[in-house]
Specification:
Low-confidence stretches: 102-119
Structural class: alpha/beta
Mean pLDDT: 80
Strand content: 25-35%
Distance between the termini: 49 Å
Order of helices and strands: EHEEEHEHEEE
Number of strands: 8
Shape: globular
Radius of gyration: 18 Å
Oligomer: single chain
Helix content: 25-40%
Number of helices: 3
Largest sheet: 4 strands, mixed
Strand order of the largest sheet: 1-2-3-4
């Protein structure tokens, strides 16, 4: 059975809303053998009903966010977005499984927040991740699944920590460690 963490910001999580979230978002579990704890944040800001969903599945994180003028519509939109992500990357994941190159776990550690008061440049948010070895193509796939513009990973061949990023022209860049 899949577990949910459903939080609300400026919105009350009613039993009906909780049931709808669990029913609709729970449908994506049919695509995978095992699914971790699904995190859902529902928020309302100036008549915009926003839904953010994070789903750890088989070593990757699926993430989607959507907003509309109705909370139920936002939930439906985020499910459509997650299902598009799943379908888009399904063939890539299957090919990597067949090739034996997809690792069992990608990094999926919960973020930790902290602030340093003594800094000239204050850190307002801090995240820690377990950096797992993978190749560049898998790192790009992870970055796209998370819908981020960059991704930190450990190169499977060199064991160096590297960064892939999305360039403004839509192509990808790689920052490699130089351990001279």
């Amino acid at each position: 059975m899949t577990t949910f963490t459903i939080r609300g910001k400026n919105v009350e999580i009613t039993p009906a809303l909780r049931d709808y979230v669990e029913k609709r978002i729970g449908k994506i579990t049919r695509y995978f053998d095992s699914v971790g704890e699904i995190s859902v944040l529902l928020s309302v800001l100036k008549e915009r009903h926003m839904v953010e969903v994070t789903v750890p599945v088989q070593g990757v994180l699926l993430r989607g966010e959507e907003a509309s003028h109705d909370m139920y519509a936002s939930i439906d939109l985020v499910i459509e977005k997650l299902e598009r992500q799943i379908h888009k990357h399904k063939t890539k994941m299957q090919r990597r499984f067949r090739d034996g190159t997809l690792l069992d776990e990608a990094f999926a550690a919960p973020p930790a927040q902290a602030a340093d008061d003594d800094d000239d440049y204050p850190i307002v948010k801090r995240k820690k991740f377990i950096v797992k070895p993978m190749d560049v193509q898998e790192a790009i796939m992870q970055m796209n699944l998370l819908n981020h513009d960059f991704f930190v990973f450990r190169d499977a061949d060199t064991e160096d920590v590297n960064v892939v990023y999305r360039r403004s022209d839509g192509k990808y860049g790689l920052i490699e460690s130089d351990n001279r």
